[in-house]
Each structure stands twice: as C-alpha cells, then as structure tokens.
Design brief:
Elements (H helix, E strand, L loop, with lengths): L4 H7 L6 E2 L3 E7 L5 E5 L4 E2 L2 E2 L5 E4 L4 E3 L9 E3 L4 E7 L7 E10 L3 E10 L1
Antiparallel strand pairs: 1-2, 2-9, 3-8, 3-10, 4-5, 4-10, 6-7, 6-9, 10-11
Length: 119
C-alpha cells in the first residue's frame, strides 16, 4: 500500500534519534487508525540490515522484540501513541543517519517508513 508522503512525515518524531545506554533509539507515532504489527522485513540503518533480535518496540503498555513478532504475538500500533524503537548494541556517530523501518500490519499490509535524522 502506498502512503502519501505528508502522512509518512507524521510517523517519525523528528529529533528523537539518540544514543542510550542500551544502544540507540527513536520514536514513531501512529497517525493512522489502530492496527497490529505482526512482522516485517529487516530494518535498515545507514544501508545495513539490522537483526530483528536487536530491535525492541515499546508503547508504554507493551514491549516486544521484533524477532518475536507474529500474527499470534503482535504489537499494538495504537493511534497517536508514541512508540519507542530501541536498537540494542548500536551506537551512532554524531551526524546524519538514514533509517528505513519496514513493518507488516495485520489490517493494512506492508509499510515502509523512511526517514533521516541526526544525533
């Protein structure tokens, strides 16, 4: 499904990319309606695929590693709720970075959310 660019820009919370004690993280927000994340393709950071085992999603109510996602073990993609995406064991150098977040939503299908931000 093709999403208009003006809506894609609403998914990523600009300025949220930062290094943490665990690795790095950023925040996304669902500007759409409720859906369930049931899987996806590997996330890409600066041209490199990341292992699903290194990625965690947290919405304040639920925390789940990307490797565990399935139709039976889903992550709630709640509308207008911040979702923190943590990439464990990855520290970003200062400067601009490109991320491609690729998810499979139960109701809406496959989506790609590309964005750039700086640390």
């Amino acid at each position: 499904m093709k999403i208009p660019k003006f809506l894609l820009k609403k998914v990523y919370r600009k300025g949220s990319l930062s290094n943490t004690a665990e690795g790095c993280e950023f925040t996304i927000v669902n500007p759409f309606m409720f859906d369930l994340v049931v899987g996806g393709k590997p996330m890409i950071l600066d041209g490199e695929e990341l292992p699903a085992e290194a990625i965690n999603l947290s919405n304040g109510e639920q925390s789940l590693d990307a490797a565990a996602l399935s139709p039976e073990n889903y992550f709630k993609f709640l509308p207008n709720t911040p979702i923190v995406v943590t990439i464990r064991d990855t520290t970003l150098s200062p400067g601009k970075h490109r991320i491609l977040l690729r998810v499979k939503l139960k109701g809406a299908g496959d989506f790609e959310f590309p964005f750039d931000d700086s640390v």
